[in-house]
Design a protein that fits this description.
The chain has 429 residues and is an alpha/beta fold. The chain folds into two domains: 296 residues, Rossmann fold; 108 residues, Dihydrodipicolinate Reductase, domain 2 (2-Layer Sandwich). The chain is built from 17 helices and eleven strands. A seven-stranded parallel sheet has the order 3-2-1-4-5-6-11, sandwiched between helices. Helix 10 links the parallel strand 5 and strand 6. The two termini are 32 Å apart. 47% of the residues are buried.
Amino acid sequence: MTENPVPTHSVPERHGRLGILMPGLGAVSSTLIAGVIAARNGSVAPIGSLSQMGRIQADPADPASDKPLIRDFVPLAHLDDLVFGGWDPISANALEAAQVANVLQGPDLAAISSELEGVVAMDAVFDQRWVSRLEGVRVKDLTSKWDQAMALMDDIERFRSENACDRLVMVWCGSTEAYSEPTEVHMSLDAFEQGLKDNDDSIAPSQIYGYAALQSGVPFCNGAPNLTLDFPGMVELAETRGVPICGKDFKTGQTLMKTLIAPGLKSRQLGLNGWFSTNILGNRDGEVLDAPENFKTKEVSKLGVLGSILEPEANPELYGDIEHEVRINYYKPRGDNKEGWDAIDIFGWLGYEMQIKIDFLCRDSILAAPLVLDMALFMDLAAQRGESGIQEWMSFYFKAPQFEEGSVTEHDLFAQERMLHAKLREFAG
């Protein structure tokens, strides 16, 4: 009698409920929740989610080795085991947020409206000085930033208890804050905690969420270009508490195109004179970015991509004098359906000039929602594997990925994918 062959991979076990907490229960968050509910019901596939639909080469040295689904390769939480919560200064629940965002079509929303309505937003920590175009109406009545942090920690523990969650992860899905740079209060954990007690003006709301999450042992992903995690005090806290962090700024539309196309130009040794990018969008994010101080935060995040990929210092003849411009315009009729135009001026053999034109009519939240799901599942896995501090391997998802001091920031999408797969193989043992 012959024995049954041993499979190369067995489906890993998953245990317990995972709570996904999102500061900013708006278009992205409500779209994520709606998509997970629909995927649970079997009505749609979780398209765009690497964790759910992506495959991985089990042994990169052996092209004939298995290519299992990632969700069958590492022990990620099941979609059925996810619980959602969040904070929002405007929307009362995920259904209201989805109705205002107008991302989902009527029948799609109607089918899951009761479940969305059940995701009730907690009162937010909010300061209009950081998002001048929004007015918070559902905010915590606390003036002390230290008290705000303690209140968020109470919210986290109450959510954990009431929803019987074994683990939690937090993903910032809120608005882009006004541009800021680290000050003395950000240079150490002690200085930051004193700054919270002193109500230091340079401490933004997103940083208070980050502090509360890490002190509560909750992994934190920064989906906006804010100065939230990328300063010494917060990195120190993440390492001290043994909690993984990653960021920043979801890589969705126009920057996704740049990280796809720029590596191709470089691989063919085609030159680049300039890259002009402009966007129109009419959602809450577009309204916030209409303020110059908030747009600058986004601009800095977007502008860093090309230089890292093309390495002008190593290729001066091809990329030594690139003109790179980025514009974002708020145009209310477009809603969440963003349109990004790119005019790319390249040159080739004998210096002859050519042009590439891209008109990407994308849906901002449709692209961002599966990223939030992946971030939450992968960061939960990292925490279970004992990872702490900055998770460079998560750079695949971000416009301005956070790297350890002294490391080279990687923006090439394909190099980032290799880093992510290598880490998953490490987790799989």
